[in-house]
Design goal:
20 strands; Glycoamylase-like domain-containing protein; UCP028431; Glycoamylase-like_cons_dom; signal
């Protein structure tokens, strides 16, 4: 995609010419037409070659899903080696991982078909209903965490989750689109996948229509919070819009994007739709190629969700370089905040201040949803490789070189580490490495999944290209108003540039300096308070 274009470029060119020494007058030449261009959406990144370390990361991360999944029922653990329960989101990533293993020759297609069919049959036949116990789901949705053996709701604090069901269904539909063979078992995979997706009753969770609730508890009913703002729930709405049996109406996407207003702005020199933790900029992108396609919101902004995620990754790197809280080791090649494990819920003195630390929590830096306690998660950077490879590759190499002797093991990078945490207190999880800080003891499925799948997308668009074949995903995107790029109907010319609202672009260009100055000042004024602000999602 061409860079956003602004009139400022023409002005800059004129200024450069004006700075040159005066020369003899020359005969006037016809003036070339002025090209209006929009500013400051970064161009699509270059594609440097991945170093050999990424081959090893990819293989080890695949083995996490292959080795730790229950072979009898296909349930994948939320985390390992502690392995307390299965996560339906982790299952969605596992279903996507198996074909990556096939394509790389790590497992045979027959093995992958066996594992996938076992998984899909188990979810098809799982007990469903409104009862508090003994069930795995209700209304086509599934509980966030399930017992690893029986597949029942793990405990009373576990919700029927709309977004985790969406992550599961992305894996289900990916399997449907990958296994295209004519043999009976691959046909059965496609049929069961269709059944699972079609029975999800999306409108049932529209208690405050047209938005979709985060979930439901059999004890207390629907969760009061709907999916709004900007975050990973793009996939929830796209799947709900694409359903051939229980669809939501297109105004769901319209109202969802209206809630973006508080999240667009400037952070660390990047103007973008912000969400603090990087997982919100990654999860939907694992399966959907958002390059060169636009909905009405991004069309008006002259950008794409792909470029938006690039800006988010670059902003986090700049935040680490600035390091306003002065955490240990932060810098240009040590960065990445997302949802991850942490050492403990505690307040300790660090650099003469009382600092809050957390166990498992969303961590991020942006306009909102901010929390930073010095805990870095390798998945945050590595899963951004498709967006900013020129920054992610050096960061991955540096983290492996600097911390690999205790952070990198059987299944790749452990979940997270915190060089600043050296306090002699009981830990919730992980361990203290003398003079090196805290390091996690678990791998977490929803952090392993984006590492594996995004490396595959970076290499050859594998997950993206497979998912483009799925009619349900295409239908959901089109009903949300997406067009252009790979959604352009066959036989039609693709537009030379992304569509944009020229009047809106001009208005933004006129006010861009003022908005950035104001945002920079606000960021400076609120740096200390934002540092310890509780995560808002």
């Amino acid at each position: 995609m061409k860079a956003r274009r602004v009139l400022a470029l023409a002005v800059l060119a004129a200024a450069i010419v004006g700075c040159k020494p005066q020369a003899e007058e020359q005969p006037a030449k016809p003036k070339p037409p002025v090209i209006l261009v929009e500013a400051d959406v970064p161009p699509r990144p270059m594609k440097p070659e991945l170093p050999p370390l990424f081959d090893d990361i990819e293989r080890r991360t695949f083995q996490f899903f292959w080795d730790t999944t229950n072979e009898v029922n296909g349930l994948s653990p939320d985390r390992y080696p502690s392995r307390p329960f299965a996560s339906i989101a982790s299952v969605g990533y596992a279903l996507t991982a198996y074909p990556i293993g096939v394509e790389n020759g790590w497992v045979s297609r027959t093995q992958a078909v066996d594992r996938t069919l076992t998984t899909l049959k188990f979810f098809r036949d799982m007990p469903m209903g409104p009862q508090r116990t003994g069930k795995g789901g209700y209304k086509g949705f599934y509980y966030h965490f399930l017992d690893m053996q029986q597949g029942h709701r793990y405990d009373s604090w576990v919700e029927l989750s709309s977004v985790d069901t969406a992550l599961l269904m992305m894996g289900v539909l990916f399997a449907q689109s990958y296994y295209t063979g004519d043999d009976a078992r691959e046909k059965e995979i496609r049929a069961i996948a269709d059944t699972l997706y079609k029975r999800v009753d999306w409108p049932w969770l529209q208690q405050r229509a047209p938005l979709i609730s985060m979930g439901w508890f059999p004890e207390s009913g629907f969760i009061d919070h709907d999916w709004m703002g900007y975050n990973e729930a793009m996939m929830v709405y796209i799947l709900a819009l694409g359903s051939p049996t229980h669809p939501v109406s297109p105004d769901a996407w319209t109202v969802w994007t209206r809630t973006y207003d508080n999240d667009w702005g400037v952070f660390q020199g990047q103007e973008y739709l912000s969400f603090g933790p990087l997982f919100g900029h990654q999860y939907s992108h694992v399966w959907i190629d958002f390059r060169d396609i636009q909905d009405a919101y991004m069309r008006e902004r002259g950008s794409t969700y792909f470029l938006n995620s690039r800006s988010a990754a670059l902003a986090q790197r700049e935040y680490a370089i600035a390091n306003p809280a002065q955490w240990k080791d932060y810098g240009e090649n040590v960065w990445g905040l997302t949802a991850s494990d942490g050492p403990q819920n505690t307040t300790q003195e660090f650099r003469g201040e009382q600092r809050q630390f957390r166990h498992y929590s969303s961590r991020g830096a942006g306009l909102r949803e901010n929390f930073d306690d010095g805990t870095i998660a390798p998945t945050a950077a590595i899963a951004s490789v498709v967006f900013a490879p020129e920054e992610v590759i050096p960061a991955t190499l540096e983290m492996h070189k600097r911390y690999g002797d205790y952070l990198y093991s059987s299944y790749g990078f452990l979940d997270s580490f915190n060089p600043s945490f050296n306090f002699d207190i009981p830990l919730k999880t992980g361990r203290i490495v003398p003079d090196r800080g805290w390091v996690a003891s678990d791998y977490i499925g929803i952090d392993q999944g984006p590492i594996l799948t995004m490396i595959a997308n970076y290499r050859n668009d594998f997950v993206w290209d497979t998912m483009k074949k799925n009619p349900h995903i295409r239908r959901g995107l089109e009903r949300a108003g997406f067009s252009g790029g790979w959604l352009t109907p066959e036989g039609e010319d693709q537009p030379m540039e992304l569509q944009k609202d020229e009047k809106a672009a001009a208005a933004r260009s006129m006010g861009i300096a003022e908005s950035r100055a104001a945002a920079a000042q606000e960021q400076k004024n609120n740096a200390n308070s934002n540092r310890n602000q509780p995560q808002g999602k």
